[in-house]
Batch of 2 targets.
Target 1
Amino acid sequence: MTDRPKRHDDDVIVCRCEDVTLGEIRRLISEGYHTIDEIKRISRAGMGQCQGRTCRHLIARELARALGVPQEEVEMPMFRPPTRPVLLSTIARGEGDE
Amino acid sequence: MNRKSADIVVIGGGVVGCATAFELARLGCKNVVLVERNTIASGSTGRCGAGVRQQFGTELNCVLAREAVRIFEHMDEYLDYEPGVEFRQSGYLMLAYSDQQWEQFQRNVELERSLDIDVKMLTPEGAREIVPFLDLEGMVGATFCQTDGHANPFHTAFAYAQAAKRLGAEILTHTSVMDIEVENNKIQAVVTDKGRIATSAVVNCAGAYSAKIAKMAGIDLPVWGERHQILITEPVEAMMGPMVISFHHDFYCQQTPHGSFIMGIGMPGEPKSFNIRSSVDFLEGMANTVMKILPPLGNLRVVRQWAGLYDMSPDAQPILGECPPIEGFYNANGFSGHGFMVSPIVGQAMAELIILGKSSVDISKLDAGRFERGELVFEPAVVG
């Protein structure tokens, strides 16, 4: 673990689906994880029910601040289907019934 | 790039490349450079099904997997990785659906037992004792190995990469290999988009892209990419221990420690390609099959689907070792869907081969030359 001075908003939850805090995101950035995809892979931020609809922007903002680049320059990960969670049984029924 | 030379350049930041870089550094190689065009675990490693099994049909695959499991069992301490690689030995349950398949399974079990891998043969009812909601229709029998399991591929790759760095290896991400300079059949340098690295040895751990890398050194390597798809559900309470596999349905499914179910199914007629886009027909085939074999999973929601590449070889076994006539060009690729699970032992064997001239697990039969010699060793047990 890297020693990093505690900040007042470190305990703020960034990814509500997977319970990842701003402090954890900052720690990962300080350890050298400098893309949203890497942060997702190591912390699960963005892997939950909502697929990162909120947290990806918050993580991008944090990366932009830490790396000193405009937020538009932070590469956004691909959205992976489905757009919303779908029951496997609904998908199975979709073939042939109608 | 401040570095101009390296003892060894490892190409590819997947788990095989990271393990190889770490083991090279551990054996005392001071100047290892790993080159990755994207980020660590961004390719097949980060897209794989995360399973670790020892139930195979060839002796070499069984031995490699058994040795890999022995490393996975103490990997957190071995690599001093605090988050942990989440290795769980909750077993693999392999289902047979025809007499012919059952006979093959029995041969496999005989082989596995002779190699000290503890595998049980079960009736369909015996399989249901392990997974109570398993549908038994058409099932002839099953085999179960408790010491099989799964690990977190991201953490495993990051753990190796961090440990390699601590031992002095340099890891260059976002760096693409453009060319490999060869003179008189000897490696001279690896040319990247960030600069030239003079070196006399290269380890090709580029997964499905390994043939492209080999071509740069003038080598025709019979490795190609083949898309395989996978999905993950919302997390639920623990209800299934082992990975469940059926070769008949070309299907696998496990519940991760996180609670979500991860599952994949092979798509007939998948062409050679570098295509990693996911498709709707996969979702339909997957949903229908999983509801046949594990009916209650129909109640789960899919949150994400994706695709990755198997780095296929002609006999579905890895290609490991030096690649004549080019001195200093080593392959560790062609894993055909089983790279993650054997990566710990592959890293060790490659490093021993390169530094000591000989590996403790004999991998000489897996050299690239076997295809020209006609000594292919087909693995019958490939899934997903």
Target 2
Amino acid sequence: MLLFLILPIINTVSTSAGGLGEAITTAETVNAILTSFFAAYLATLITFFFGVPLAYTLARHEFKGKSLVDAVIDLPILIPHNAAGISLLMLLGPRSLIGGGFSSLGVSFVDTIFGVVAAMVFVSSPFMIRSAEEAFKSVNPELEKVARSLGASTFNAFKNVTFPLAFRGILTGCLLTWARSISEFGAVVVLAYYPKTAAVHLYDVFVNWGLSAAAPITALLIILAVTIFTVIKLITAKPLKPSFS
Amino acid sequence: MSIKIENLSKKWVNFAIKNINLEINRGEYFVILGPTGAGKTLLLELIAGFYTPDTGKIIIDTVDVTSFPPEKRRLGYVPQNYMLFPHMTVEENVEFGLKMHGFSRLKRKKMVDEVLELAGLSKLRSRLPETLSGGEKQKTALARALIIKPKILLLDEPLSALDVNTQKKLREELKKLHENLNITTIHVTHNHSEAYFLAEKLAIMKDGTIIQKGSPDEVFYKPKNNFVASFVGFENLFDGKIVERHGNLVVVDIGNIKVEAVTSLEAEKCTLGVRPDDIIILESPSKSSMRNLLKGKISNFISMGSIVNLTVKVKEKSFMVLITKRSFEEMNLQKGKEVYIAFKASSVHVM
């Protein structure tokens, strides 16, 4: 199994090494990679701010309709991503109620960075929510009670006790969300073909110029993703003591 | 501070705290004793403010705090297993409450230094909880709770996670601490000897209600009903009928067995309770001041280290008797051997 996972990557990188120099210096490729990283960063930020409170609610509270909420969170993993793109287009397109409302405020989702981010948020949010939920579940709620008895408000108990203890799990959620966002193609290509992300650009090159032109870009993307992911993993693997004040 | 709990009730899905009434005086060490599942911890958590009761009031001194959130009650809470913040050092754990109450950095440092010194934790100040022993964790949890100068100290099974020797040591330290600080304390436990040793007043709790409250002697030696009697160690309980009275000395028939007891109970029907450690074993009948001497046969025995738990069958009734292993061996006791059991009339509790 491991071989099946690693061989295509090794094969692509080794056979395309010669064209890497050209791929790095092509402005279109560099712009597409930067667009992907920036949009994935924004998507992770948005998912963090809205997903973490939802994850905390799911981990700590029982309420009517919780199983329905659970199912909704997993939906983006279940449906094909081009279908997700079409659904988002129908919801956020200029002729829809919500999309029209945003258009009147000067925010369009079709073929803009907002569209790219929206598609990324949609497909990657389950990774953030589930990671954070598990992280919160692993923190004993009794610790919050003790913090409250010592004078901490609900928010301060969360900020000083629960969040630091769940931090590593949440960080993992951020990494997975970012990585999933970078790799998204199906939803992005339907909602926002432009500005081209790395995945869309790669598809574009492959369709128009063939495999030999797409391979070095593929190798570059793989190297970048693995390098960044490894660096972040190494940083977060160090003993971590978040500050609390 | 004193605390008054009036008609406190709270319903959960499968459990309810029912109509609790307690009055705990300023500086009193009050123990709530009960078996697992009695609702002791939930009662403590209601007092701490983690849940809002369905009915009733919690009054601290003269202030009704029933609707106050935990952070506004200023109660010191030490939960089971201490729940030290695992990502904070001993010093940071102890300092936490002061930070939350807005004390300046300088003041915090001074107070933490003092408390760590008093608790003998100074050398451990930079250690994380996972590196501490059970006793050290307990001291840290107490220091963390006490540094905010709480109005009342709430202790939930504070000694249950410790080995027997540490339990005994820390039990004495708790007593000393209470004598020094004179802080009103509510201590929840299922351990009889812990309750008896520490309590100035205690309450027995079962199925979400208080069954009996009073001084330790009142509860342990004058239990109100069969549950309390059996819970506090009256393992020999028999229903009977008073058939003779000679002032306070009565003769009770417990089914072809006559037992003499001292009581002022006026009712005819009653229940007798005798503690296993109040009964002695004799190889042959001999005259003594003990009013009750019964012939029986050993039907079972269980060795519990230095103590042996004997079951002696007297006619149809079984009496539990505790004797030392040494006596058991010296008397050459064994299953089926005929013996005599003897106990004082004043050792018999009549309910």
